[in-house]
Amino acid sequence: MRWGILATGGIAAAFAADLVDLPDAEIVAVASRGEESAKAFAERFGIPRAYGEWGALAEDEDVDVVYVAAPHSAHRAAAGMCLEAGRNVLCEKAFTLNARQALELVALAGERGAFLMEAMWMYCHPLIRRLKALVDDGAIGEVRSVQADFGLAGPFPPSHRLRDPALGGGALLDLGVYPVSFAHLLLGEPSDITARAVLSEQGVDLQTGALLSWESGALATVHCSIHGGTPVAASVTGSRGRIDIPDGFYCPDRFVLHRDGRATEEFRADPADGPRTSLKHEAAEVMRALRAGETESPLVPLAGTLAVMRTLDAIRDRIGVRYPGETPAPSPHLTPA
């Protein structure tokens, strides 16, 4: 399977390095907004073609699928360009700036008959899949609550991309997408949302806390921050037990299952699966789906991606974060705070 990589930042480099673990994958082209950075990236990873602009990669018919690793403020343009040209796309998260842009990409993929998937690698992680299967099988009964956090200590200067409104900065889209997606994985889309945040002078969220609720009575508390390190832990409580991920919940190396009346069980990652931070599992899922003729992945379905984007929109509506040139409407299915 021949990959193209769009953008040359840290996550693109991590993805390229992890593709080495997949013998049926090959990176044939890379594109950046500057020719020098594209050539440097190509030399680093032994990629035969380097383009100094995104359009050339989108038009490269030798590319089976493009991994879009640009900042999320550019996802609509970059992924859209690739889909328009008939390329299949794996697009980093947050998938887009807002649900409207996400819906446009999904519609475009449908029109072109192209494969499209959000790079929510957490959903493809072997231990997260094991946790999901246990919950679905009723190991802890009916899910009553979910807790998850993701905070980085920083400090990040105002010039950093995480503080830049033009790049979709703030804690929520960069980090909060993980706790929100974790809650969605286990409970689906919430029926009501409340949220509070601390905003920077530039108008992006430095930290955000949200309470998500479902008609079943389930609740989720999610927190993200770019000015305070957190445990990056998660917990799922059910009517008959609890599952705890003590650290790095989005790429765990272990989790602990507590079931009423039974001994505590610990589940650990299989060393054969590689490092806990490996991105190869999402790449393997893309290639599996493409070979099966699928236009989306059942592990990261597009309906789920759209639901997460609606939730992120609703949280931003509650905390008053808007990005330049953006006029998103509130999600109609959610009750106003």
Strand order of the largest sheet: 8-9-10-7-11-12-13-14
Unreliable spans are 328-337
Rounded to the nearest angstrom, the radius of gyration is: 20 Å
Instruction: Estimate the global geometry from the Cα principal axes.
Output: globular
How many distinct helices? 10
Q: How are the SSEs ordered, and which strands pair?
A:
Blueprint: E1 2-6, H1 10-19, E2 26-31, H2 35-45, E3 49-51, H3 54-58, E4 65-68, H4 75-84, E5 88-91, H5 99-112, E6 116-118, H6 121-124, H7 126-136, E7 143-151, H8 171-187, E8 192-199, E9 205-213, E10 219-225, E11 234-238, E12 241-245, E13 254-259, E14 265-268, H9 280-291, H10 302-319
Parallel strand pairs: 1-2, 1-4, 2-3, 4-5, 5-6, 7-10
Antiparallel strand pairs: 7-11, 8-9, 9-10, 11-12, 12-13, 13-14
Describe the structure.
- With 337 residues, this protein is an alpha/beta fold.
- The protein contains 10 helices and 14 strands.
- The strands form 2 sheets. It has an 8-stranded mixed β-sheet with strand order 8-9-10-7-11-12-13-14, with helices on one face. The protein has a 6-stranded parallel β-sheet with strand order 3-2-1-4-5-6, with helices on both faces.
- Strand 11 and strand 12 form a beta hairpin.
- Helix 8 crosses helix 10.
- The longest helix is centred in the C-terminal third of the chain and has 18 residues, at 302-319.
- 48% of the residues are buried.
